[in-house]
Amino acid sequence: MSDDVPLLDDLMPWAVSSLRLGRTWVAAPDPTALRTRWSALVGAEGAERERLFRPSRLRSTTTGAAALPGQRSASTAGFADAPGPCPDPVRVLYTPFDEQWLLPDQRLIDASRPQLWRVLDEHQLFTVETPTGNTTNDTAGNPANGAGAGGLLVTRHLPAGRLGGIRPLYRRPGGTEPNLAPGLLPLLAERYGGPVTAQDVLCWILAAGRPGPRGHEVPLTADPERWRAGLDLGRRLLAVRLRGVDGGEPPRLPGGRRPYVRSAIQGWPEGIDWDPQSGTLSLGSGTVSPVPRTAWEYEAPGAPAGTGGAGAGTRVLRAWFDARCAHRDPAAEGLEALGPTEWPQAWTSELLALVTTLALLADLAPEREAFTPGPLLARAGLTAAGVLPAPHWSRRPASVLDHQEEGPGGQFALL
Predict the structure, then answer these.
(1) pLDDT tens-digit profile of 185-225?
(2) How many CA atoms lie within 13 A of 98 on its CB side?
């Protein structure tokens, strides 16, 4: 791509860093485990509570914090003074493809990014950039797309540099005020001869965007036919990643390829493996089949070498299983060691959905890899039309004043 191709940063100006937890025990694959951990922390006293809490420079048992927007919280005082009731765990994207649960209490999280919580609702979607030059798979295709999309907040219990900016599709709740360069949607509608929505642009990004040396490059086509072809591909990618959009049924593999539980998982499986001859995924005595090779070998973006991460090329299914066994690791201690004693049935359902997602993304990968935007609507044209550069205000969060937020110690937060 040339320097005249716009970047994702040009088209979606507002970006926020991912959540940084600061302590691993505040997230878990099982919401019941989080409630158990909360109770254990509330029941501990003195030095034991400090040990379990694991204070950091930003958070300790005496640190008060504002209530997270949209989350009911009975206490904003320090945990040691007034822990309050356990908040209802919320679903987050813990690592690529691994949906877990989080205790939404800002007193427990080093960097909770309240500006993201203010715009989080059923209409919101988030794009997530992977590092420039990464050549592994990611959330939208195989090989790397460089940007994925989803409806969940993204944590970063990850080495520095693993994820780029998180860009909400909308700057306000209710799916209003798209996080797009002002003037982009009317310009595209004029060029392509029909209405263009913010979600259309996101779908095009999934289909046509590519990582490059300058950042995530998004070539915009000057050909209405190529635009429609890219939308079709992007919508299918988004539907797979979200497991259905706009209330529709989640995409499924054809009947002969659809994975089923052939034998139930009993007790706790000691490992996960895949048989290339039968296409069977084994978890202890439990089996799931058919599982295609493409799903078993699907890899998520890995941490750069030497950062302490798993390394590039982490297999999604193995990492997903390992995350659910983390509390049983002999090295786990404190609250991290509290988790289910038997394999929850809900995890098996999640596994079937994950296998389906990976297989469908792998099926779409060749089409995505071969997709070309055709003649380009260059960055210079966007500049001439007054769309670029995006104004400075569009790179800052909108003022969301629909409700008051309780700050530390019961004071109202100023937004």
Answers:
(1) 999 999 999 999 999 999 999 999 999 888 999 999 999 99
(2) 26
316: Cβ contacts below 8 Å, ≥ 6 apart: 96, 97, 98, 298, 299, 300, 354, 358
CA-angle at 33, arms to 31 and 35, nearest 5°:
75
pLDDT digits (tens, 9 = 90+) for 236-292: 999 999 987 766 678 899 888 999 999 999 999 999 999 999 999 999 999 999 999
CB atoms within 10 A of CB 7: 17
Find residue 275's DSSP bridge partners: 280
Name beta bridge partners: 288.
Answer: 261, 281
Angstrom distance (rounded) from CA 135 to CA 150 = 21
Distance CA 85, CA 82 (A): 9
Rounded to whole angstroms, the Cα distance separating 18 from 25 reads 18
Please state, in angstroms and as integers, the Cα–Cα distance from residue 165 to each residue in 41, 161, 277, 390, following that order: 33, 10, 41, 17
Residue 125 tokens read as 């979607």
Q: How far is 241 from 219, CA to CA, in rounded Å?
A: 22
**Where are the chain's structural domains?**
8-255+361-413
